[in-house]
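ligand=glutamic acid
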Amino acid sequence: MTSNVRVRVAPSPTGDPHIGTAYQALFNYAFARRHGGQFVLRIEDTDRERSHVSSERAILDSLRWLGLQWDEGPDVGGPHGPYRQSERLELYQDAAYRLLESGHAYRDFMTREELQELRQREQANKTFEHYERRDRDLPSEESEARAAAGEVHTVRLKVPLDGECTLQDLLRGEIRREWAIVDDQVLLKSDGFPTYHLANVVDDHEMGITHVIRGEEWINSVPKHLLLYTALGWEPPVFCHLPLLRNNDANKTKLSKRKNPTSIHYFRDAGFLAPCLVNYLALMGISRAEGEEKMALGDFVDDFDLEDVSLGGPVFDIDKLRWLNARYIREDLSPTALREALREWALSDENLDRIVPLAQPRLQTLSDWGHLTAFFFADDVAPDPELLTLKGKEPAEIVSILQIVTWRLEQLREWNLEALEETLRDCCDRFELKMRDFTRPLYVAISGSASSTPLFDSMLVLGPDLSRMRLRRAVDALGGLSKKRLKATEKQMQALWRD
Ligand code: GLU
């Protein structure tokens, strides 16, 4: 069966491949497969400072690992390419120009400083004044002339001053939003790059997307998007906003890496099986009777009805995921298949080749191998808080140091020895510590023991996700950070890295 259904997942390559991206990809994938349509992967890399190719690579790798293969995308091509927004700038610029011509958009010549001043004034007065609208009614000749003379500007969308926007969401029905609280969105930045809103709408149209299935956090963008569709004379797609994944805490807060692992690679490296993770993500959107939770992707697709997605905030409960993973290991793998799965996970020759030279100088007998290298094949090493010490520092200070190190490591684009060494040495210098003292709690956090294989090499082998998770667990083992302390630690980091 073929149909004209075309859906997409449109991640921004600005960090670790997020579990929320996999969740959205899965529901798009299932909808496309169910209806014989096409599933597109588009990379939204218009944020030039934050986008990075290593993040794009990680997103593609992780979705492929999960088995959610796309029909069109930057790596496989397709008739609507290129599939990377940074390669489609002309399309957005043309659209912005058309919107200027038809009076649906205007040039804003405010400088960054002027804008900041107005924003601060608005915040101080606690009002919502639409300070961004200063240039909204400039005569078009003046606007043209100033642009032609090279004056720096952005292009903003002219949002109606009053009335309301009505939008339809497939799961939520009719939603109304007052225009008065919608700002005149920047569409094109002063460097000629589009913002998310313009690029997203232009691409969904150009790529023939029929259904936009994405996270709930984008609902408030729909009024702006609908305005763009109308102004450009295009038919909008069907919108369907999936409920956000939640932490398993008292307030069911939005899934965050402070409380829950969120990187897809963490789950792979911690030894979860891809079909289990996909199965678990499917359960986030559909309800299954107890005992019926285990299902193959193919069965999920066959029964899939987008309108059945339940709106209750789905809680991502890692204990439940472990329980399901155990079922996959017990029920789906023969001992031979399990051995293969272990090999693929961490017992490959390639991985052992990296670990053996690190262990060799520390082995008295071959049987020392087990306890010496166990931490390479574990998720959690449950560090003993008594061992998480640093000469001259109180536990509270050590917590802050470990947290800052984690943040610095999160900034690393490439996980290689040089980058690791540089980052950790830089941290050590800024904390004004001796390397020997500084690395002590790091050893314990990473390996569970105060003496082990060399730290940097061990972290290199473990990879970014497990290494950072262990540092986070060490922070927790020392009592964690309250919201207030977290803020103070952030300030401490800013002060230390001021230059
Ligand atoms: N680039 C957006 C994101 O990172 C896409 C949102 C959408 O699907 O419209 O989530």
